Amino acid sequence: MIQHTTIRLAPYRRGFHLITREVLRAINDWPEQGIFHLFIKHTSAGLCINENADPTVLEDFESIFNHVVPENLPFIKHDIEGPDDMPAHIKSSMVGSSISIPIVDGRPDLGTWQGIYLCEFRNHATSRTLVASIYS
Amino acid sequence: MIQHTTIRLAPYRRGFHLITREVLRAINDWPEQGIFHLFIKHTSAGLCINENADPTVLEDFESIFNHVVPENLPFIKHDIEGPDDMPAHIKSSMVGSSISIPIVDGRPDLGTWQGIYLCEFRNHATSRTLVASIYS
Amino acid sequence: MIQHTTIRLAPYRRGFHLITREVLRAINDWPEQGIFHLFIKHTSAGLCINENADPTVLEDFESIFNHVVPENLPFIKHDIEGPDDMPAHIKSSMVGSSISIPIVDGRPDLGTWQGIYLCEFRNHATSRTLVASIYS
Predict the structure, then answer these.
(1) How far apart are CA C9 and CA C5, in angstroms?
(2) What is the CATH number of the domain that holds A35?
(3) Interface test with C, best of A1, A32, A37, A48 (most C CBs within 10 A)
(4) Per-residue pLDDT reduced to its tens digit, C65-105
(5) Which of B67, B84, B93 should we substitute to test contact with C (largest number of C Cβ atoms within 10 Å)?
(6) Hey, are the CB atoms on C50 and B43 less than 8 Å from each other?
(7) Facing A54 at nearest CB: one of C76, C78, C87
(8) Looking at the partner chain, which of A57, A94, A111 has a beta carbon nearest the beta carbon of C89?
(9) Residue A96 to residue B100: CA distance in whole angstroms
């Protein structure tokens, strides 16, 4: 059995943001056992799972990803939407468009330090749409 | 219920290629609700979801990934299959070996600008084999 | 139907390690058709699928990922757990926290050269916990 829930996130500024609570409270009914799948319907933002405690980790995610995929590389062709756009596409494929988490004993079985990140790679993004799916 | 379909792609040259149509037309029967999972059975090519409209985005994917994971790094040991081989393995693990997409109202619920990419990282690759799985 | 199995890996040193056998032998019962999902409950290690034959590939994974995400970048703020910690978080989100593989004819349908990697990014990690899920 599969149930989908559309989640329209509040707009977030460029950067990495913990959205665990915002996502999980959108689900009304957790099965005892299952898989939780979360998908982002955009190509310049992504989803991943990482450290949920120290805010400087989120800041370092932003600066290190900017270091790995810099803006204004001289050979970039798709620059019509600004210097942040093409790096945003690359970063979104590096982190990925979806995450999936086992549901054990009626809750998503995240590790102690794991949280769900929205990776917002654009300078001026509007609200992002996610599809949460539970199969059980 | 799970149904698998093997998809043998046409050979593609090195680079990023939109294969949305080629993949989706291989599926005869879409359930109303489900998840679509696509897996590549190779280690020097990958799958991801990204921008489906501007061909220069595909070109920039190739050049930026080459910038992030350059060939001929002096410390590389596994070079027997050519300078493109080891970077291909790395890139394939960065983008990943599978994608999954919610199926909503009888079709894969991609965002407006999302398409499925084959990421072909080898200079002279032959046809790649995918396994498409639908669970409903 | 979904069945979870918790797998507590032996501790591995920093680097990339083939854990295909260790993971698959933890599963007692494979369905004829299904999906195999593997999730790591940590934020400084990851999972991916890559080449299963040449040990130098594993060494090159380690050195190339260190090249892409170097330690001691001057702008890093979260350094209290050592210079390997923040790069470990980044690398884990690059490779991802889970993999999924179609189960075809009673076995995980990996390609000839595909194996499951534990990507251990910390210098002194202890045992890592995985959740293996089979849905059929």
Answers:
(1) 12
(2) 2.60.120.460
(3) A48
(4) 999 999 999 999 999 999 999 999 999 999 999 999 999 99
(5) B93
(6) yes
(7) C78
(8) A57
(9) 10
DSSP string, C23-36: HHTT-----SSEEE
Contact at CB, C57 and B3, closer than 8 angstroms: no
Alpha carbon dihedral B31, B35, B38, B43, in 10-degree steps, equals: -160
In order, the DSSP letters of C22-91 are: HHHTT-----SSEEEEEEE--SSEEEEEEE-S-HHHHHHHHHHHHHHS-S--TT----TT-TTHHHHHHH
Asked if ipTM goes beyond 0.85, one says yes
Q: Residue C24, class by beta-carbon neighbours within 10 Å (0-12 exposed, 13-18 middle, 19+ buried)?
A: middle
- Per-residue pLDDT of A46-100, as tens digits, reads 999 999 999 999 999 999 999 999 999 999 999 999 999 999 999 999 999 999 9
pTM beyond cutoff 0.95: yes
Between A and C, how many residue pairs show a Cβ–Cβ distance under 8 A?
95
In chain C, how many domains are there? 1
Which of B3, B38, B67 to mutate: most A Cβ within 10 Å? Answer: B67
CB contact under 8 A, C89 and A51: yes
Question: Nearest CA to A87 among A38, A118, A127, A120?
Answer: A120
Residue C27 to residue C49: CA distance in whole angstroms:
18
The residue segments making up the domain with residue B29 are 2-135
CB contact under 8 A, B78 and C54: yes
